[in-house]
Amino acid sequence: MITLKTARNRGNARIWLDRASCRTLAIKHGEPYSVEFGPDAIRLHFPPRTVDGRARKVAGSADRPVVDLCSRKVDPSIGGAERYSAARTTPSIVTIKGAAS
Fold first, then answer.
1. Domain ranges for the chain
2. Which of 29, 83, 68, 88 is nearest to 97 (CA)?
3. pTM for this structure?
């Protein structure tokens, strides 16, 4: 599990996972995933679970993979927390939750 500071961009909460975070969570560049914004957490699904067949891909490069979530949906899912934790909760899901400051 990792704990990081929630960033802000244009008033929206931003979750940013890169190099070391992605390595810890076993996230690889180019890997397809989907995002589920829930009432108490954000879940990244590997492989993606989509209704319309569209998925996101881990951005960046092989040396520096990046998952960037910046949306008005982030704040409610992490309870407006200043910090968040991310953990691989199953082999196919990374769960992101608000953490105590």
1. 2-99
2. 83
3. 0.92
